[in-house]
């Protein structure tokens, strides 16, 4: 007992190696990596939360919710060291909400960076990731309205998209790219676009009523093969990619029935794959809900059948186009090469699509106003 | 013959004088020579401070003085003792032999009648039953349930228990402990229900007490508990006779001490500290929820400050980012690390609590006002502590008082400070070591041979229905196995 | 009212389970998954079978020497000097394993949670707490393990359950050439770790009066199965590719668990809580070392042995320079090193008991 007491006192004298007071931390909210063109030099941007500017109850005079620091180094392992030259607080990366990579950096291949992220226990790989085609300073030096912390803003935006696309998991995370390294199926990461020429870098930004320009937009997709960006796909392709791979279970489509536009919400999308020796049959089961109907006539069973049939055809056509697009680009977008039937010979597979839909909800009006 | 009488008077003088010598010059010692109308002479000794003067006058002195018929003192058939027994109007009369017995009796509130020439005395119990009336227990109040609490008088306390358990199985064994205080201590148990070994163990430990004084039951508790080096109470202390009765009926043993309203019962376990007597006077579901609430309060009390410290100073990643930013904003400008901040606040709170306890009731108001200021707004606004810390300390402080057993609440506080220190030094790892240490400690404790952590470890499933829940009465047909009762059915 | 020290079946069960789980869930998955890919859980099941067989063997050996602990058996079987030497070997063995367990624990803490705190602080604090447990005795340790097992099982499986939404059956379709025998040969350390370490329980067998076999084998089965299941889940959630590259794949599952949007990162709490199992294992091993020393040299007070041993073990734990050294040693030499202790010596005891019986019966026959 006496020994224990002595030990406790000793602990008190020497302890606290890992003590880090929360006021000594620079909480990084969003980080981005860019590359200096023509060199191997990486530029890392850290967007650090300013506690007094972002807390719900403001205590200080500071208005800015975040500050962006950037450092430039040859290899990622030294970023931390570099930040100590310019930041007064210790870099704290556990709460990064979102990683942003520039397109030019993503195209050079990012395996080394991901190795760095996985190696360090204070970096996380279940963090959202986007690729941007805008100049990185525009992204990293802009304030955002509504959610005043940009990283959180992006994250909530993507959460919302994942929810409306019926994802059971998060939209995209760093670990999706990592897990995709050995696979034949490319990983698709959302793209972040920026409206505007210059960054909205004054905190006055949030005083303006105009919120979408300058502003962020997440749409389209960057295609990654072995952690290297190889191309882009547009928003509708990206949606199909998620649907046909079984991630997305919801969506919105427009079709033309009898020469009029009908907008439909897709629900409970179920994708079944049936493998033959060298053929793949994909069956898509969808439940439909009407969102907008341009046909000025009473909704009858027959008409609903028409809607269903034209949806089936239209969707099938789209999916076939998607498959053709993948072949053209030499991307195994359906991941055929990752199952044992198709390993190494996904191009030889004959893929056929069948869409079966059922209209279940039509909304509040059966007969539209003429 | 006169010589003989002389000698007798000497002896008489001797006994009475020797008693007077021993008792000294205390103003409350009364020594009267009584001479009856018939000329028969006796000495009467008692202590006015503890004897009932009126009772002595009415039942002893008057009958002797007014004894109408008096056989001749020198007649052969004269038996002074039987004469006195016939004369004095008193129910309890004992013969005391020798000086020590006589002094013991007189200190016990007896009135001594010493016959001339005898070394014996007649002792009548004329003890003044001066006591406060039975009141509601101050420390253990209940909403529903009896309002009676023990008082300082042993006999009264026994009656309070006896009144509740009208059974011939109820046994009170009395013994006198303390070479100077000669305190009467009563061992109570239900014969045929309490395990014989348990009763024997209690008796053995009580008899082994070697001390000069027992002024409160805490003295006894310290003497008979299994382990001294632990903050946890190994005997339940209560001033509720209904609680004692319930425990007796479960096969436990109680120790009731003269001079204090606090009775002891044992063996007890860790989980009994969460059971209030009131649990049994309420609906089973309500009682169960309340029990869970108390357990949750215990966990809150020991973990909240420690977790707060370790999260804020070691593992900030555990907090959601917005909350973290909020906390950081609050702590901007607070000069102390979280551990110091927490210790400061907790100690301040303890000081306030102690002051509130010791202060005269009238001044209590001041304490609460000052306390609210110190622990609240002012400290936050002065930038000495953060608002979150005030919340943490308040939650903890309130939770400390939830336990129905007061001494358990104190143990809880000690554990709390222990955990806080560990968390302040090594974060969650330190806290985890503390938890493991505490578990080992609790599992190693025993209370009169019963595992302190039972019925959780070792697992006694059948006892869980009156530990983690309070099952409806209809399901509590058997006594807890924990105390290994002689008869398990109720 | 003191009764002779005795353990119930449940206590042995809890202790065995905690012991088997011990450091296994920290260390084992990555090696198994990188050797056997998606079939790692099968390998684990196979080693559970082996564990059961070996456990049964020890129980049989112990039943030949009723009421005797490992040290006493060895002295009874092999005589005072040889037996004493074998006991000494076992003592060193127990101390060694305790040191490794301590080191694994502190490595885990340092790599994942507190990178700046020196290893020896973790070691000494953990060992001191365990020394307290050792002094309180094996019944206390086992009682605590009975309490911990259900709580920790819940704490351990919660992240897996939450992470089920990341489940992907395709992970089991990882392209791999699975050769049965080479894989088994490569993963033979899984047989030794933890299933040959359980030989330590031979110190506790004589204390258990009821349901000894069920409790011991049940504990091995219960926890071995859970580890196998958690490897299965790890593959399903993280995939073969990622989990074979990470140092602590299961910790990564804890890390990536998002309990709700409010509580995003609970890994520190979950993993620190799971470390309690390591504490139980450490306490058991420590107890075995201490009580063998006490039995061998007839020392009454365990505290005299336990506190000095804290320093020995904590120093010994620093022997490996880093976790890579440690893992390579485990993969190459561990099984061979464990064989004499797990199988060799017990076999020797068994043979000795046969000889003894034969000589007894011949004596009887001649008489």
From TrEMBL, chain B:
Originating organism: Paenibacillus sacheonensis
Family the UniProt entry places it in: Belongs to the GerABKA family.
PANTHER family, sorted: LEUCINE ZIPPER PROTEIN 4, SPORE GERMINATION PROTEIN
Residues annotated as transmembrane: 292-314, 373-398, 418-443
Protein's name according to its UniProt entry: Spore germination protein
GO cellular component terms attached to this protein's record: membrane
Domain of life: Bacteria
Gene Ontology biological process: spore germination
Keyword list, A-Z: Membrane, Transmembrane, Transmembrane helix
UniProtKB/TrEMBL annotation, chain C:
Keywords: Germination, Membrane, Transmembrane, Transmembrane helix, Transport
Gene Ontology cellular component annotations, sorted alphabetically: membrane
InterPro entries in UniProt: Spore_GerAB (IPR004761)
Cellular location(s): Membrane
Pfam annotation, one family: Spore_permease
GO BP field: spore germination
Domain of life: Bacteria
Ranges annotated as spanning the membrane: 12-33, 39-61, 82-101, 113-134, 141-160, 189-208, 215-241, 268-290, 302-323, 335-355
Membrane topology type: Multi-pass membrane protein
Similarity comment text for this entry: Belongs to the amino acid-polyamine-organocation (APC) superfamily. Spore germination protein (SGP) (TC 2.A.3.9) family.
Record's protein name: Endospore germination permease
Species of the source: Paenibacillus sacheonensis
Lineage of the species this protein comes from: Bacteria, Bacillati, Bacillota, Bacilli, Bacillales
């Amino acid at each position: 007992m006496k020994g224990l007491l002595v030990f406790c006192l000793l602990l008190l004298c020497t302890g606290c190696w890992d003590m880090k007071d929360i006021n000594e931390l620079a909480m990084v909210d969003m980080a981005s990596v860019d590359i200096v063109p023509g060199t191997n030099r990486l530029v890392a941007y850290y967007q650090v939360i300013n506690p007094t500017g972002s807390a719900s109850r403001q205590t200080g005079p500071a208005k800015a919710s975040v500050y962006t620091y950037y450092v430039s180094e040859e290899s990622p392992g030294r970023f931390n060291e570099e930040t100590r030259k310019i930041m007064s607080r210790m870099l704290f990366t556990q709460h990064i909400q979102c990683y942003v990579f520039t397109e030019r950096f993503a195209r050079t291949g990012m395996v080394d960076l991901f190795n760095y992220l996985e190696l360090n226990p204070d970096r996380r790989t279940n963090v959202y990731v986007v690729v941007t085609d805008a100049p990185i300073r525009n992204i990293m030096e802009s304030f955002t309205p509504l959610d005043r912390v940009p990283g959180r803003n992006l994250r909530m935006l993507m959460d919302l998209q994942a929810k409306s696309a019926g994802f059971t998991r998060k939209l995209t995370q760093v670990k999706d790219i990592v897990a995709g390294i050995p696979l034949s199926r490319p990983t698709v990461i959302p793209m972040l676009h920026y409206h505007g020429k210059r960054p909205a870098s004054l905190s006055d930004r949030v005083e303006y009523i105009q919120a979408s320009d300058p502003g962020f937009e997440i749409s389209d997709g960057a295609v990654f093969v072995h952690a290297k960006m190889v191309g882009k796909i547009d928003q509708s392709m990206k949606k199909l990619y998620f649907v046909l791979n079984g991630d997305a279970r919801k969506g919105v489509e427009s079709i033309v029935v009898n020469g009029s536009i009908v907008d439909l919400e897709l629900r409970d999308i179920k994708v079944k794959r049936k493998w033959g020796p060298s053929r793949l049959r994909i069956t898509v089961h969808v439940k439909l809900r009407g969102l907008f109907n341009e046909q000025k006539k009473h909704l009858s069973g027959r008409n609903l059948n028409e809607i269903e049939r034209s949806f089936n055809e239209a969707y099938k056509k789209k999916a076939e186009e998607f498959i053709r697009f993948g072949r053209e680009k030499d991307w195994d977008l359906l991941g055929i090469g990752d199952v044992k039937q198709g390993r190494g010979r996904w191009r030889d597979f004959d893929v056929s699509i069948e869409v079966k839909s059922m209209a279940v909800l039509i909304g509040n009006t059966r007969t539209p106003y003429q | 013959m006169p010589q003989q009488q002389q000698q007798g008077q000497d002896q008489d003088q001797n006994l009475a004088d020797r008693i007077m010598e021993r008792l000294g010059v205390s103003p409350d010692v009364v020594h009267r020579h009584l001479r009856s109308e018939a000329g028969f002479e006796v000495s009467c000794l008692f202590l006015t401070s503890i004897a009932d003067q009126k009772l002595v006058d009415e039942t002893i002195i008057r009958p002797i003085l007014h004894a109408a018929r008096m056989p001749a003192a020198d007649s052969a058939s004269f038996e002074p003792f039987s004469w006195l027994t016939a004369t004095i109007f008193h129910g309890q009369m004992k013969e005391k032999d020798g000086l020590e017995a006589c002094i013991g009796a007189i200190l016990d509130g007896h009135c001594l009648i010493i016959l001339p020439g005898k070394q014996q005395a007649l002792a009548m119990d004329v003890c003044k039953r001066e006591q406060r009336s039975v009141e509601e227990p101050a420390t253990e109040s209940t909403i529903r349930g009896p309002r009676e609490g023990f008082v300082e008088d042993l006999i009264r306390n026994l009656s309070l228990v006896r009144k509740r358990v009208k059974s011939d199985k109820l046994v009170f064994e009395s013994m006198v402990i303390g070479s100077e205080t000669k305190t009467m201590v009563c061992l109570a148990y239900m014969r045929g229900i309490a395990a014989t070994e348990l009763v024997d163990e209690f008796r053995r430990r009580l008899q082994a007490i070697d001390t000069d004084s027992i002024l409160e039951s805490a003295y006894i508790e310290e003497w008979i508990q299994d382990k001294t080096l632990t903050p946890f109470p190994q005997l339940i202390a209560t001033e509720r006779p209904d609680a004692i009765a319930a425990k007796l009926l479960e096969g436990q043993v109680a120790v009731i001490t003269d001079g204090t309203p606090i009775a002891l019962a044992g063996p007890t376990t860790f989980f009994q500290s969460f059971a209030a007597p009131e649990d049994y006077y309420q609906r089973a579901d309500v009682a169960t929820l309340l029990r869970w609430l108390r357990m949750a309060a215990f966990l809150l009390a020991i973990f909240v400050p420690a977790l707060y410290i370790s999260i804020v100073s070691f593992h900030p990643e555990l907090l959601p980012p917005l909350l973290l930013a909020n906390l950081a904003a609050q702590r901007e400008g607070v000069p102390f690390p979280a551990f110091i901040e927490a210790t400061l606040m907790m100690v301040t709170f303890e000081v306030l609590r102690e002051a509130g306890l010791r202060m005269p009731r009238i001044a209590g108001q001041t304490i609460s006002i000052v306390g609210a200021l110190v622990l609240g707004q002012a400290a936050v606004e002065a930038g000495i502590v953060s608002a979150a810390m005030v919340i943490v300390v308040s939650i903890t402080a309130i939770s400390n008082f939830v336990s129905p057993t007061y001494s358990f609440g104190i143990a809880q506080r000690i554990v709390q400070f222990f955990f806080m220190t560990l968390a302040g030094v090594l974060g969650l790892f330190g806290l985890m070591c503390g938890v493991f240490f505490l578990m080992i400690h609790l599992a190693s404790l025993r209370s009169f041979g019963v595992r302190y952590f039972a019925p959780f470890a070792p697992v006694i499933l059948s006892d869980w229905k009156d530990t983690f829940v309070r099952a409806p009465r209809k399901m509590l047909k058997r006594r807890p196995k924990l105390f290994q009762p002689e008869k398990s059915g109720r | 009212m003191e009764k002779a020290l005795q353990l119930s079946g449940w206590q042995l069960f809890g202790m065995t389970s905690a012991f088997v789980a011990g450091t296994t869930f920290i260390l084992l998955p990555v090696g198994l998954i990188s050797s056997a890919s998606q079939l790692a859980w099968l390998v684990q099941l196979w080693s559970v079978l082996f564990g059961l067989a070996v456990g049964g063997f020890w129980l049989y050996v112990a039943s030949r020497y009723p009421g005797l602990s490992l040290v006493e058996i060895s002295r009874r079987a092999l005589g005072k000097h040889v037996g004493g030497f074998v006991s000494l070997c076992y003592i060193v063995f127990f101390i060694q394993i305790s040191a490794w367990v301590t080191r694994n624990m502190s490595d885990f803490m340092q790599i994942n949670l507190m990178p700046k705190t020196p290893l020896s602080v973790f070691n000494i604090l953990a060992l001191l707490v365990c020394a307290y447990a050792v002094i309180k005795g094996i019944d206390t340790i086992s009682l605590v393990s009975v309490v911990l097992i259900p709580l920790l099982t819940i704490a351990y499986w919660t992240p897996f359950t939450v992470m089920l939404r990341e489940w992907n059956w395709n992970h089991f379709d990882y392209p791999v050439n699975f050769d049965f025998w080479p894989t088994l040969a490569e993963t033979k350390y899984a047989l030794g770790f933890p299933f040959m370490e359980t030989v330590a329980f031979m110190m506790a067998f004589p204390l258990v009066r009821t349901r000894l076999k069920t409790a011991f084998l049940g504990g091995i089965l219960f926890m071995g199965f859970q580890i196998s299941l958690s490897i299965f889940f790890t593959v399903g959630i993280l995939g073969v590719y990622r989990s074979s590259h990470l140092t602590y794949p299961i910790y990564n599952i804890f890390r990536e668990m998002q309990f709700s949007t409010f509580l995003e990162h609970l890994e520190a709490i979950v993993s620190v809580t799971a470390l309690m199992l390591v504490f139980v294992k450490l306490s058991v091993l420590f107890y075995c070392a201490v009580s063998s020393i006490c039995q061998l040299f007839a020392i009454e007070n365990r505290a005299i042995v336990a506190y000095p041993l804290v320093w020995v073990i904590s120093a010994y734990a620093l022997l490996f320079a880093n976790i890579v050294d440690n893992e390579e040693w485990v993969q190459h030499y561990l099984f061979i090193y464990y064989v004499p202790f797990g199988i060799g010596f017990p076999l020797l005891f068994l043979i000795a008991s046969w000889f003894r019986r034969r000589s007894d019966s011949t004596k009887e026959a001649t008489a």
